[in-house]
Design brief:
This protein has 153 residues and is an alpha/beta fold. It contains six helices and five strands. The chain has a single domain, classed as HUPs (Rossmann fold).
Length: 153
Amino acid sequence: MKLKKILIAVDNSELSLQTALMGVDFARVAGINQIGLVFVIETLKAISTPELGYIAMDAVQKSQVEAEAWLDSIIKKINYDKIKITKFMPEGDNWNKIIDTADEWGADMIAVGSHGRTGFSHLLLGSVAESVVRHTKIPVLVFPAKFVNKEEK
């Protein structure tokens, strides 16, 4: 199977920036010609009062602006003109939306970063990377934070 599309999941962290850049390096080596960058906007739970609903919408709109700025900054750092880059900013739960976006776009692979939390913090925070791996039907390339940080030195 020839890989044509890789979806790289990012947020506004240094880990996700490094994951994106490493995902692009992987795409170059693998001959992948399309990259999708997905930044999931985590929407607030619906609240029944209109006043709070407006505040929630303002927060979502602000998050959308910040997400788009972050994606644009990543794209500026990608110096590879042979790859078509598509931006996605779905709203909802991180891992679900990453998988949904990959399926809808027809990605052949997903790339994610992982903080590598263990124990109690893993139980509390969960792991987006782990959930993507468990629930998707396509290959997932996981960049552990320890590896990414080691590469920066």
